[in-house]
Amino acid sequence: MATSDKLERMMNLAAALLAAERPVTAAWIAERVAGYPSDKVAFRKAFERDKAELRDLGVPITVEEIPDSYPPDTGYRIDRAAYELPDPGLAPDELAALRLALQAVRLGDDDAGSDGTEALWKLGGVVRDDHHPLPQATVASLPADPALVPLFTAVMERRTVTFTYVTSQGGQERVVDPWRLDNRRGRWYLTGHDHLREGERNFRLDRIDGPVELGGPGAFERPAARVEGGPGQPWLYGDGEPVVAELLVDADRARWARQQLGDDVDATDHPDGSVTFRVPVTSWPAFRGFVLSFLDRAELVGPDALRRDLVAWVGALAGEAS
Questions:
Q1: For the chain, how big is the Rg over CA atoms in Å?
Q2: What pTM value is reported for the model?
Q3: What residue ranges define each of the domains in the chain, with the CATH number in brackets?
Q4: pLDDT in tens, 112-126
Q5: Burial readout 190-229 (b: 16 or more C-beta within 10 A, e: otherwise)
Q6: Strand, helix or coil at 179?
Q7: How far apart are alpha carbons 241 and 171 in whole angstroms?
Q8: Calpha distance 123→213 (Å, rounded)
Q9: In terms of Cα–Cα distance, which of 97, 76, 68 is closest to 33?
Q10: Other CB atoms closer than 10 Å to residue 245's CB: what's the count?
């Protein structure tokens, strides 16, 4: 079956289960939901695949006993209260703009449903807009991640999450109040309150190992002020406690350095116009590359461990080039 036919069938199934006022049987689905084969064995295989894929997309298909059935029988339905997000109040033109964006930017691979249509089901539906035709081709792509769907749910419903996070020191269980999700430089990041570290932390989703466990809804309150998501500089992409690097930059490059490091960085201005910046670093290789971009117009003052590593690394490069 073509991908478009499969997607249409899955949408038909989701719509039927959402509209059902009580659980419906597999036989009812086979008879009334368009797109399924008439052969019973083929139907069962297709139906089981569709259920699994819809659940992977975050659609809560439940199995329930049908009231007043004798002998007792079970059926399927989608609980609207568990499925639908709180109404964000999007106007039709805002939904149309979101639809255009989801069609132009693909999330993940080219499998069915990766065009973001499922997200629109939760945000108020797909809006027909003849005045703004859909893009004919994907113009950008964002990577998907298995943790993205449960974490999106956790952020929206304020559910505390538990997962195993892998760093250079190995895997460790983290309990986090998720505040927001961001995509930076091709990677997804979660920003939230880390109960283990008792503070705000950023987590790369591709370093989450195994399932994400969700707690109950409404478990925490988000900060009143807007939380900036994901690290803005590549030298903050690492894990662990930051090391403060001291970088002395010549006067003619100091302004550019300040633009790259941000206005909040701790800095000391010197009479000759040079500036010493004290920069928190969690990814030393990224910051090392930043230091070398100045050539002879900057000096890594400290700490000594980073200075020695920089000298050794440059020396090794020089030896390979000779």
A1: 26
A2: 0.41
A3: 3-83 (1.10.10), 92-142 (no CATH), 148-227 (2.30.30), 243-321 (3.30.70)
A4: 444 445 554 444 444
A5: bbbbbeeeeeebbbbbeebeeebebbeeeeeeeeeeeeeb
A6: strand
A7: 16
A8: 24
A9: 76
A10: 23
